Structures are given as structure tokens and as C-alpha cells.
Amino acid sequence: MSPVAVLLVLAAAFAHAGWNLAAKRVPDGGALFVWLNATLSAALIVPIVLITATPSWAWVVPLGGSGLLHLAYFLLLQRGYATGDMSVVYPLARGTGPLLTVVLAIVVFHEEPHVLGLLGAAAVVLGVLVIGSGGGTGGSRKAGIVYGVTTGVVITGYTLWDAHAVNAAAIAPVVLLAGSTVTESVLLAPYALSRREQAVALLRKHWREICVVAVLSPAAYVLVLFAMTLAPVSLVAPARELSIVVGSVLAWLVLGEPNPLRRLSGALIVVAGVAAIALA
Questions:
Q1: Which ranges does the record mark as transmembrane (predicted)?
Q2: In terms of pTM, does the model score above 0.90?
């Protein structure tokens, strides 16, 4: 990859891990936190779309579907961070998607993946086992594993949906991003408006974290898209998973989560597995 592409991928990795750290710091935020993030993101992105594109009714289904899947993703992730450690939930959420892709290719499409892909899948499973063993109470560890893996399944879903929307429906990524955030905000609006006082209190208490997530979440996405215009997807995809390692280190240094060596080792194994799957 070119130096610029490398810098973009690294920036995306730190941005992604950074907004997840901010989300973890608001364990009691729940759906209100997700609504505030989505609403602020929409307010930042929608004006750009209105200036650069002409809205079309053909966008409704692709954008609505993307919004539903991303909403499920954010709600599950937030619930995972409320019940489990970031150093457990984050690597599992990011690593499950590529593993699930290999499984679907074998079971549903009867493909025969390259041996490197199979080794990568095995490495992801091993990394998950390393991360999930030891440290924390049994209940919190189990919850972190369940929510991490479930979130990873949803990531697979929105990745496939968004890829279809961008390629088959020819929708610009920034339009998809705007539509997704608007959908999330609209769907959660009745819930948030019925809890105005709680929403205002949450905004006052955690406005920094809300701003971080609202800005860095779409920024990480856009940075990766730019990197993919400068380097092959087969190189960018595994490189972006460096965020798993960054997130694990931040969970240890900033949040003081236990068993850093075990969990960082597991995260590195997951990254290696994801890289092998992407390069297979």
C-alpha cells in the first residue's frame, strides 16, 4: 500500500477504536445514547448529501434496511458494553464477521475456501477462545462473549446489505451513511421524546462521548473508503482490523480492564485470522 493509504487505514483504526472506547464509557446510555449519536451524525452528514446529491424514492428501501441493521448493531454493542468488558466485546464483534463469511461460503454456497482461509477461520476461533477464557466474573464474561458474537453477526448483515446498496443500487456511500443515521434517529425518536428529561441529563453528562461517537464513527467509515480508492480491498480489509489491537490496548490503559496480556494475545490472533481470511 502507498504511504497515504497506510495512514488512512491507521487513522480509521484509531478512530474506530476511539469511538468504541467512548461508547464503553457510557454503560448506562442504552437507546438514548444511540439516538443522540445518530441524531448528531445525521445533522452533520445530511447537509452534505443535500448539497452533492439529488434525493430519490429509489433510496428508501436500501437506506431504510441499512438503518435498521445499523440500529440493531449499535443497540447490541451498547448493551454488550453495559454488561461486558470492551476487551472482550470489541474483538469478538470485529472478528465474527469474517469467520461467519467463511462458514456461509461453505455451508450455503458449497464453496471450497483456500487453505489459508480455513487456517484464518481456525485462528479467529482460537483467538475468541483465548479472549473468552479467564478474567472477570463468569456472568460478565459470558455476556460479553454473547453480545460480542451477536454484534458480529449483525455486522455481517449490514456489510452485505450496504455492499449491495452501493454496488447494485449505485448509491453513494455518503448517501447510505446519511440515510442510515436518519433512519436510526427517526426510529428511536418516539422512545427518546417520551424520556426527554433522561435524554437531556444524558446529553449534559456525556456530551463529550456523544460528540466523539457521532464524529468518529462516520469518519472511520469514510477513511476506509478513501483508502480503498488508493489500495486493493484485499489489503485494506485486513489492515483495518488493527483497530482490534488498538481497542484492546485502550481498554487496558484507559479503562483498566483485567488480563491485558491474555486478551491482547487473543486480539492479535483474531487479527491474524482475519488477515488470512481476507488474503485467501
A1: 57-76, 88-109, 115-132, 144-161, 167-189, 210-231, 261-279
A2: no
